[in-house]
Design goal:
The chain is of the alpha/beta class and about 500 residues long. The protein has three domains: about 280 residues, 7-stranded beta/alpha barrel, CATH 3.20.110; about 100 residues; about 70 residues, no CATH class. The protein is built from 20 helices and ten strands. Helix 1 links the parallel strand 1 and strand 2. Helix 1 packs parallel to helix 3, helix 12 packs parallel to helix 17 and helix 13 packs across helix 17. It is globular and about 100 Å long. About 35% of the residues are buried.
């Protein structure tokens, strides 16, 4: 089996408005609604709608032999519902074909996998539930934000029940190995890995319209020739790219849609390759070996590391500060805070702070609303400062509410105990009623003569208490000489009673 796996990332962030220092503590709304709506509608018209329509036609034209996969962030799904519901409907039509697979990822398109298991799992579960709700699929394959992967992250994904995961076929990881095989996680071999062929992917995503590129112009025939040059024993070519490649990164007048329309037919006609979804690749191919990735990798830049998001002190400070608030956010039990916390985690915010403009300028400046990484940092930290104030206030209020609730519970329990004591008192015999009220020792002296009161504790000072044991016994016992010694015996019995009374108090 020789096959091509096409996967596309779909994501648009919620961008922040210009949030100034004087807004901190005074204005708690952070989002640039105008920019978010206008950008999404622009991309929808240039990319999402026409590309989805073309993909649907290609699936029908080739009678299901053309297959693709998408990873749509929860943030993008929210914006589709808000600003462009027709885009969401077009994805549903693709899902109905049965030839499109939707992958799991983090809901917020976040880097939470780098900060611990709890928040990471929370977002993945939320995203999978959203995919099932809209497309009727329960994701089996996972794609982390920005293709971020390490052995440890892969082990977490495997523990969550996913069968396979997508990541970058980085040179420094693979060495002499080819990305065109199925691999597995080094910690948990049950997790299969599909590695991106970044050269063939970037030929479409980044170099297609570059007139200075020696291979310009790129045609479907030329691309299939490259595929046919791949050694026959290499089984899968994973082509992973942003969906915005079609129509947005590469504009329509570059011929990108013509290329896409011609590619599936040319592949099926002039090569031994078929098309498969990630789940099909993981199910049909055999793993050749494990891949050791002790340090996290990504798709970005020449280094294929995390420096695009966490490569400078600005990014690291913002990142660490944000996740230090997580425990307080969930302790507050405030839905508005939880939502803002989710939006604050969007990886784009940290990407805007990148200082790698000198080497990858155009990539990092794309859709960047800030003039410099320093502007991005200041704006983000202003938002985060206000957010922290709200979180701390909510936690204090939560503690006060909890104390009030506990006080109410204690009061209710006391009232219940009072009622129970009254009920018990009312059920006692009339003879015991005075004893139930616990009169003072002075008042109990005349009562000591009664047989029914003989069992009640009495003070050691009164001689009457010494006669009580004799009263309980047969009259004949009173004539014995030992009866004279019984007052002393009563003292020994009285002292434990005093000790017991002291313990109870």
């Amino acid at each position: 089996m020789r096959t091509i796996c096409f996967y596309f990332q779909v994501h648009q962030p919620f961008r922040f408005r210009r949030y100034r220092f004087f807004d901190i503590g005074n204005d708690h709304y952070y989002y640039d609604d105008f920019s978010n709506e206008s950008i999404l509608n622009k991309v929808a018209q240039k990319c999402y709608l026409p590309t989805n329509a073309l993909m649907l036609d290609l699936i029908k034209k080739h009678k299901g032999r053309f297959k693709i996969a998408y990873s749509i962030s929860g943030i993008a799904m929210e914006q589709f519902r808000l600003y462009a519901p027709e885009v969401l409907e077009s994805f549903k039509k693709l899902a109905d074909t049965g030839k499109v697979e939707f992958l799991a990822e983090t809901y917020a398109h976040s880097l939470s996998s780098l900060k611990g298991k709890e928040e990471f799992e929370r977002q993945v579960k939320a995203h999978s539930a959203l995919i099932k709700e809209h497309f009727g699929q329960e994701p089996k394959v996972f794609r982390n934000t920005e293709l971020v992967y390490s052995d440890e992250i892969g082990a977490m994904v495997a523990a969550m029940g996913y069968k396979a995961m997508l990541t970058e076929g980085a040179k420094h990881v693979l060495g002499w190995k080819s990305p065109n095989y199925l691999y597995c996680n080094a910690i948990n071999p049950k997790l299969k890995l599909l590695l991106k062929n970044f050269k063939l992917s970037d030929d479409i995503a980044f170099r297609f319209s570059n007139q200075g590129w020696p291979e310009y112009p790129l045609t479907a025939e030329k691309y299939v020739d490259w595929l046919n040059q791949i050694p026959e024993n290499e089984e899968v070519v994973n082509l992973f790219m942003d969906y915005e490649t079609f129509g947005e990164h590469q504009w329509k007048d570059t011929g990108i849609f013509d290329f896409l329309e011609a590619l599936p037919g040319t592949v099926l006609k002039n090569s031994p390759f078929t098309f498969s979804t990630p789940s099909e690749v993981a199910r049909k191919l055999q793993v050749v070996s494990a891949v050791n990735v002790p340090h996290a990798i990504s798709w970005a830049d020449e280094e294929r590391d995390l420096t695009a998001w966490l490569g400078n002190e600005l990014q690291q400070e913002a990142f660490d500060k944000l996740y230090s608030l997580g425990e307080k956010v969930y302790a507050s039990n405030d839905d508005a805070l939880k939502q803002d916390y989710t939006y604050l985690q969007i990886s784009d915010h940290f990407y805007y702070m990148s200082t790698k403009f000198f080497s990858d300028g155009e990539v990092h400046s794309y859709f960047n609303p800030y003039n410099s990484p320093y502007d991005a940092f200041i704006n983000y930290m202003n938002v985060l400062s206000d957010f922290e104030i709200r979180v701390n206030a909510a936690v204090r209020a939560g503690v006060d509410d909890q104390v009030a609730r506990l006080s109410k519970i204690i009061k209710e329990k006391d009232e219940q105990l009072e009622k129970l004591e009254k009920r018990l008192s009312s059920k006692q015999s009339p003879e015991k009623a005075p004893v139930a009220k616990k009169p003072s020792a002075a008042k109990k002296a005349p009562v000591a003569k009664k047989a029914s009161v003989a069992k009640k504790p009495a003070t050691a000072k009164k001689p009457a208490a010494a006669k009580k044991p004799a009263a309980a016994k047969k009259p004949a016992a009173a004539k014995k000489t030992t009866a004279a010694k019984k007052p002393a015996a009563s003292k020994t019995t009285a002292s434990p009673r005093r000790g017991q009374t002291g313990k109870k108090s």
